[in-house]
Amino acid sequence: MSRRHRPDIRSSREAVSARLADDFLEFGSSGRVYDKHLTIDSLAQEGPSDRVTLPEVRDFSARMIAIDAVLVLYRSVRQADGGLPERTTLRSSVWKLIDGQWRMIFHHGTVVPPMVTRTAPAIPGRNVLLRTATSDDIEARLALGNDPEIIQMFGVSKTAVKPMSREKATGWVQSIISNPYAWVIEVNGEFAGEIRLDRVDQTDRRASMAIGMYDANIVGKGYGSEAIRLLLQYAFADLDLHRIGVRVLAYNQRAIRAYEKCGFIIEGREREAAFVDGSWHDDVIMGIVDREFLRQPSSTPH
Question: Which residues of 65-76 are buried (b: 16+ CB within 10 A; e: fewer)?
Answer without folding.
Answer: eeeeebbbbbbb
